[in-house]
Input
Amino acid sequence: MGAGKDAIIYVVDRDSMGKFNSTADQIYQEISGQLGGGVYSMPAYFNGTIYYGAVGDALKSFPIIGGKLKTSPASQSAHTFGYPGTTPAVSANGSTNGIVWAVDNNGTLLAFDATDLTKVLYDSSTAPNGRDSFSGNKFITPMIANGKVYVGTPNSVAVFGLLP
Output
């Protein structure tokens, strides 16, 4: 699965990726018109759903149904991501309580309910007195480990976790 500057999602058959064929492209599924801009990142996967964050677009979820992606998003965030979009990451308790994390280039960490991207669980820009602010950085993927979220900045690492 992948997408690029053309804003088209391509799904290939991992067991039959094909070889050069001058008469057919051998793409398993091609979805156009659902991403608002180019994709400079990788999608995230959780519980049978793919999450994309294209340039100038909302974070969107595409369920996998019968081996193919649903051709329109099942859910999308109200927040849109400027250039270069966002690379989502997922944390969960097994197959429950999924959270999709995304970093905006302006230095904002956002957390969304994985089952409904309209539900914002956390937005670092709303913390009082700039407590959770950090410098923006392009092409950053949040990393989740040991109950904390780590975000690379231009000259450091911002660490987010529960307050004591």
